[in-house]
Design brief:
The structure is a homodimer. Chain A has helices at about 20-35, 55-65, 80-95, 110-125, 135-140, 145-150, 170-180, 195-200, 215-230, 230-240, 245-250, 255-265, 285-295; strands at about 5-10, 15, 20, 40, 75, 100, 130-135, 155-160, 190, 205-210. By secondary structure, chain A is α/β, with parallel strands linked by helices. Chains A, B: One of its GO terms (molecular function) is 4-hydroxy-tetrahydrodipicolinate synthase activity.
Chain lengths: ~300, ~300
């Protein structure tokens, strides 16, 4: 199996008083390694990479590799400026990363040619395989299937992380098949958007790039293992069981604030662990998160 | 007149081989001071602040003040993380800035409370007046009139930079009046989006925060001075004369790539002066920019 298949868990990078809480981060990574996820992706969107300095990110990459035991670690290298992306890539390589995750972050909107050239530059300069990270909710950049294809042809591209799949199973399969037809065989497709994990794997995705797995690896591992055994109904049932969690993600503006509240509730991260200006959930919202965690028996 | 009124010119921060071209930047600032603009705003969106490191930004702020003669210099301090915003604010203050420009940059979407608290923190910690920078095209954050009002009540808020006005003059006046009704009297309103400069001033805005003025100050100064004398028809006529330039802004995805091509064409910036991954205009597009500059006699 490609290392870019199966379950990749995205841990938070918890802060305490605006400083990375290295002990909490190391604890999250050790928890993931023990849960037998297929890979750990540090410094993704959930890892708040966009908010951290190059020095903080280099340190977090090193900690991730040190505490991941033998689990492969992928490191997010996204930044607004290409030269900073290259700096993060070099630091990740020095840290011992097994792969790189790269989204086209934007302040000024980017063209397809801008984005293609960035991937071309990074793959030419780094020896590590690269995951193309399509996250329009944070980057506001829209990949076309044609651009997936152009980028996936670059030597060094290992995987494409797509933002969910259509709700209807036939449409989901057709969507994944359409992407598959544009990219080389060795490039895997990974679904993200945790509510779509089971559906994405059933639709033919090779990997699930998962936020929830970064804090609650067990249910995500159950969904992934069932899917890998072809037990898609069991995977869908487990995903349906977690619907109250997916609903909180949708209601509270995405997964980050909710998963941070989960980690804080379970004592895996210090309180208010997100970088300001992101204040995180308020007390009433945190209470609802805690209720869902208890009702779904996710605290174990 | 408030220093946050009249014409504020936004210079580029030109790069050469990924390093700030300090001589070109100083030249742009000197050109603006000589053109008698009312203020210079360094490190705005046009100044590519989002792409520069804290060290680069501190240096650019110092250069701007050193080369601006007696023209007040405002400095952009926007960043994704509040602690980095505070660092930029402290560096701008040390550089001798007369004010700060702050947009709610996003990677994760922000709530209104997140954004309010950021302005509260910055105004509490900095002695400098702050311009609230509403630029949804780059930040993807939508201010409401109510949020303008809450933020404008904070001590230290001096101005709100709004993203254009409605096309129809009565609607434009009503829009500016609606904002005016929510904010204290001493807080100015400045229009941006250069195609809206004349219309915004006619609709009651106090200031024009202008991209074009950062490279081509003379026509922007003519529009502003006519407006300040009540000669709104003359201002509108000069703005209409520049319509081919506004059309290039619209066609080529905003003002930045076009104004960079203008500065390069006029020898005010080195070629390919924008930070990668922004490749800037292609040769055919640059040819069209050059034609418009010549036809409008803007090269002087």
């Amino acid at each position: 199996m490609s290392p870019f298949a199966g379950l990749s868990a995205f841990p938070l990078t918890p802060l305490h008083d605006d400083v990375v809480d290295e002990r909490a981060f190391a604890g999250l990574v050790e928890r993931l390694a023990a849960a037998d996820v297929d890979s750990i992706t540090a410094l993704g969107s959930t890892g708040c990479a966009a908010y951290l300095s190059p020095i903080e990110r280099a340190r977090v990459a090193r900690l991730a590799v040190e505490h991941a035991d033998r689990t492969p670690v992928f490191v997010g290298i996204s930044a607004l400026r290409t030269s900073e992306v290259l700096l993060h890539a070099a630091n990740a390589e020095r840290a011992g990363a097994a792969g790189l995750l790269l989204a086209p972050m934007t302040y000024q909107p980017l063209t397809s040619d801008d984005v293609f050239e960035m991937y071309q530059t990074v793959t030419a300069r780094s020896g590590l395989p690269v995951i193309v990270y399509d996250n329009p909710g944070t980057t506001h950049f829209a990949f076309s299937p044609e651009l997936y294809g152009r980028i996936a042809e670059l030597p060094g591209i290992a995987s494409i992380k797509i933002p969910g799949v259509p709700r209807e199973p036939d449409a989901a399969r057709a969507h994944v098949a359409e992407i598959r037809a544009t990219i080389p065989d060795h490039v895997t497709i990974g679904v993200s958007g945790d509510a779509f994990g089971a559906a994405g794997l059933a639709a033919g995705c090779d990997a699930w790039y998962s936020v929830v797995a970064g804090t609650l690896p067990s249910p995500a591992a159950r969904i992934t293992r069932s899917s890998q055994e072809g037990a898609f109904d069991a995977a869908a049932a487990e995903s349906a069981r977690l619907a109250p969690l997916w609903e909180l993600f949708a209601e509270f503006g995405g997964s980050l604030r909710v998963i941070a509240a989960v980690a804080e509730h379970l004592g895996l991260a210090p309180s208010r662990c997100l970088p300001l200006p992101i204040r995180g959930l308020d007390d009433e919202q945190r209470g609802r998160v805690a209720t869902v965690i208890e009702e779904l028996s996710l605290g174990g």
